[in-house]
Amino acid sequence: MDILITGLLLGATYSLIAIGLSLQYGVARIMNLANGEMLVAGAFGAFWVFTAQTLSPFTAALFVVPGAFALNWLIYRVLLRPLVRRAKSRGMLEVETILATFGMSFAFVGIMLLVFGGSYFTYSYLAEPYRILGSPYGLNRVVASAVAVVICGLLYWGVHGTRTGMAIRAVAVDPAAASLVAIDVPRVSALSFALGGAVTAAGGIVLSTFLTMDASIGVVFTMKALIIVIMGGVGDVRGAIIASLILGLAETVVASLIDPGLTLAAAYLLFLLVLLFRPEGLFGRRQS
Amino acid sequence: MTARETRTLILVVVAFALLACLPLLRHGYLLSLGVDIAMYTVLATSWALFSGPTHYISLATAAFYGIGAYVVAAGIGTLPYPALVALAGLAGAVAAALVGLATLRLSGVYFVIFTLGLAELVRQIVTWVQNNFTGSRGMYVLTSITERMIYWELLALAAAVFFIGWRVARSRLGFALRIIGNDETVAAHLGINSAACKLALFVISGAFAGMVGAIMAPRLSYIEPSIAFTSELSFQVVIMALLGGVHRLWGPLVGVIPFTILWEVIAARFPTQTVLLLGIAFLLIVYLIPNGVVGRIESALRAAQRRVSHA
Q1: Can you tell me the ipTM of this complex?
Q2: By CB atoms within 10 Å of each CB, which of A31, A276, B202, B306 scores lowest?
């Protein structure tokens, strides 16, 4: 029972980064491997607000989220749009965006190392027990997953309940057909990419309340987000949420029953099962 | 063999003979740089054998390299060294075959993601096994193998990579790969088993990375998970190959030499900034030299020729 709840709490926070990546890959068609660095940047923001300003880390969202939105919008417009335009096929675009975002990822890590140094950073926020069904859990984890659930709910409403959200879903299904019904595909793509970055940075704030981070840890989260997105099915918000919960559970089970050093192996095992049996994702439709 | 091929062959043999004389200079730093360049040449060229025609970006080099180094560390007390190098090649090939079977049927993205974390995954498993079953973490590889012998071994391996690359390019397999790289659907309609072709090349590159790891193990002398599996290596290899150009067999070599020297300089002066260097190199390649230096030079030459013929 402990494992189940801890796993679900962890999975709920993972869903934020997965939805961020899902918006970027599923809609804007950019496999953004610099996603994890955006998360670390968000976590740095929360760390700074808490230690230097002695405010609640969640207040960092006031500047981190708009900042990440603007930065990602710029990245898409300036760096990625030219690649989309010159690519001859989807495969070419994937190779080029993978290389370009690898470059961005390393450049971000380099800059963050310059600015913040290579040390671990952590802070203690709400580190007190909170009882669920009689067993104690860290209050920070409970609050973090509650915040994640609220953000996920807002996004779900945004994507499924508004006109812009409908345009986003249309582009996710077929960019060419979307432009036939007067959807400005480049604008919607840029919007989704920026929104994805903002969600990921928010995920960084949430995760920083209970995880220790350093400048070069981003790639670990990129990896997890990628596995979740593929498991859930590309561009599928519901699938991403369920896959996050599965990953959170699997990691917690392995960490508590076998060895905490094998969490990546647990994630890989899931990834391998998906690749072998359901490469189109849990809820994806098999392509002919 | 045509006259032109004979001439190229003689040039290559002379070049290798001259390079083999490098240790005779008795210049320690030059030799160690030579070892690095030879190592990256083997890794980048064998990487390009697979990734050049197929456009599948493999980040698994570090995993195979580490596996090779571990084979030597585990067997140095019981088996003769040459057998260990062969075994390391086999281990790299088997690992590549397993990864390839799971991922090469699918699109390139799955493959990149799977190889991205592979070195870290193997590292976690090795660490776990050592912590729980063998007791000690590190292992010593103490041999009488000197740096100049490592250099010669790598040079021989480089010759083998170039030979295999040349053979593959002229074979049915190489032709099939070029079609796959241009259009996989066309390849499927022609009756090419594209997954098998990709797998064959990936296994070759995995075997070479494993052997390189085995050859470098005596130089490392102390093997532990964080030394043997450095994911940075995979990225360096990708950058070097793409920087030079992957559409020619000797293209990666053009990228290896300047980038190895640049890496040495940066790592010595600003050790924390090698990550930034990797990032800038990737961005430069994508935005300024998408076909590598060799591609740039070739298109410049073609343009010059056209100008001459028009005049």
Answers
A1: 0.84
A2: B306
